[in-house]
Write a structure and sequence with these properties.
Layout: H1 2-11, H2 19-31, E1 43-47, H3 56-59, E2 71-73, H4 76-82, E3 95-101, E4 105-106, E5 112-121, E6 125-136, E7 139-142, E8 147-151
Parallel strand pairs: 1-2, 1-3
Antiparallel strand pairs: 3-5, 4-5, 5-6, 6-7, 6-8
Length: 152
């Protein structure tokens, strides 16, 4: 339950940056998603773009086409499977891992930004993290490793 509260906290934060800046950074964020380790025969790895909750993909829908190999856009059934905390014994279903990417928060000078993101997966697994990005002459780049803020 604590995990869900953390997810709602960052997912509703709005950015005052222009949409163009958000989406430019968003291309780097999507590029930097962890490589999926789950075989497609076991379920899937999904990115949430639920329009009822603000997120990077709801602000920048064109990023849906830029997802790395192994990721697909989540449907309602994928969200439900990812949120099964305790599987029912004897009932077989495909597992799911669901990533949600928050809207970036930019520093006042526009040279850096943080992005909160999370994942949940079938069977009480998940985490929320924050990644810091810096802007250089060649674009946005991840600055260090993502910092874990909560884990389940």
């Amino acid at each position: 339950m604590v995990f869900a509260i953390g997810l709602l906290t960052f997912a509703t934060a709005a950015s005052t940056a222009p949409q163009r800046d958000i989406c430019d950074l968003g291309r780097a964020v999507v590029r930097d998603l962890p490589r999926p380790v789950q075989a497609s025969s076991q379920g899937g790895v999904f990115v949430d773009d639920d329009a009822s909750r603000p997120s990077l993909l709801t602000v920048c829908p064109e990023l849906r086409k830029a997802l790395p190999p192994g990721y697909t856009i989540a449907k309602q059934e994928d969200r439900e499977r990812a949120n099964i905390a305790v599987p029912t014994e004897g009932v077989h279903f495909l597992t799911a891992t669901l990533y949600t990417i928050g809207i970036p928060t930019f520093a006042a000078d526009g040279r850096s930004a943080t992005v909160a993101w999370s994942y949940v997966c079938t069977g009480l697994c998940g985490a929320t993290l924050v990644s810091r990005y810096v802007r250089s002459a060649t674009g946005w780049h991840l600055d260090g490793e993502p910092q874990v803020t909560s884990v389940s």
